[in-house]
Write a structure and sequence with these properties.
By secondary structure, the chain is α+β, with helices and mostly antiparallel strands. The protein has helices at residues 27-34, 53-62, 116-132, 200-220, 230-237, and strands spanning 43-47, 69-73, 79-80, 86-87, 94-101, 137-139, 143-148, 151-163, 166-174, 243-248, 254-262, 268-272, 277-280, 284-290. Pfam families: BPL_C (PF02237), BPL_LplA_LipB (PF03099).
């Protein structure tokens, strides 16, 4: 299949694009608003459908595509999350895109590249909170959360993949997903969280501009998460910290403890029984319950 660029022209008002509540993205307008001399974003392409934008962009990265390439799909037929989990959603119900970054060109050492998915989370949460009017929190390491009917729900996820000397960061964000379309009960969307707008064009522009700002600062400080403020900002917006959690680790192991910090390497630090603090670099995190601080009132279970 050869994906085709979609620009949201009036001729698209029939056929696939007949759902007026979910109009196509306007690729030409996105390029006009985001691609500029000296800016991060260099190429923006919108395709009607593809298997996975990450898979496609990894191939392009290895072939030498420039930093700042953005690939957006109106629909993904084989979208992937962490641990190769499937990501499915109706066409044009969300923002499904990948970005190509080459931090080594700016002198960022490879050991700091692991901060890129956390950076994308911070930038996306800030942008969506402003543009959609919805409080958006972070769940370590790669999820964005919103509150729907008083319950914590997953709004979207982030997947970063190394491609030689590049990193491809993919994001999937539920925008207009309705209750009867949720893939699992724990999923949510901006619409279900009461967003003031579900217009995907300005939402996408806001997210990409926020990523460019954070990436520019992070790169300016050679990827130092403390010096550029990323580590502190991530911790401030992370709903995992201060919670009792279960870390499901590779190899079938698990740890239970209070999430107390995100360290300089982007690892989640757990305070386990016996007072031992253990960093977790990879794994699934399950929020078990809140652990109130001394100055906080008791949490309502």
């Amino acid at each position: 299949m050869t994906p085709s660029d979609t620009s949201g022209s009036p001729g698209d008002a029939h056929g696939r694009w007949s759902d007026l509540e979910r109009p196509p993205l306007n690729a030409a307008a996105l390029r006009r608003g985001l691609v500029r001399p000296g800016g991060l974003w260099t190429e923006i392409e919108v395709v009607q459908a593809t298997g996975s934008t990450n898979t496609d962009l990894v191939v392009r990265a290895r072939a030498g595509a420039p930093e700042g390439t953005v690939l957006i799909a109106e629909e993904q037929t084989a979208g992937r999350g962490r641990l190769d989990r499937a990501w499915t959603a109706p066409a044009r119900s969300g923002l499904f895109f990948s970005i190509l970054l080459r931090p080594g060109e700016a002198g960022v050492p490879t050991e700091r590249w692991g901060w890129l998915p956390l950076l994308a989370g911070v930038a996306s949460a800030a942008a969506l909170s402003r543009a959609a009017g919805v409080d958006t929190a972070l769940k370590w390491p790669n999820d964005l959360l919103v509150t729907v009917a008083g319950e914590e729900r997953k709004l979207g996820g982030i997947l970063a993949e190394r491609a030689g000397d590049a990193v491809v960061v993919g994001l999937g964000l539920n925008v207009s997903l309705r209750a009867d379309e949720l893939p699992v009960p724990t999923a949510g969307s901006l619409a279900l969280a009461g967003a003031v707008s579900t217009d995907r064009d300005p939402l996408l522009r806001a997210v990409l501009r926020s990523i460019a700002e954070w990436y520019g600062e992070w790169r300016r400080f050679e990827g130092d998460p403390g010096a550029c403020g990323l580590q502190e900002t991530y911790a401030a917006g992370c709903a995992t910290l201060g919670r009792r959690v279960r870390a499901e680790l590779p190899g079938g192991r698990e740890r239970i403890g209070e999430a107390v910090a995100v360290d300089g390497d982007g690892r989640l630090v757990l305070a386990t029984e016996g007072g031992v603090q253990e960093p977790v670099s990879a794994g699934d995190i399950v929020h078990l319950r809140s652990v109130p601080r001394e100055e906080d009132p008791p949490a309502q279970e």
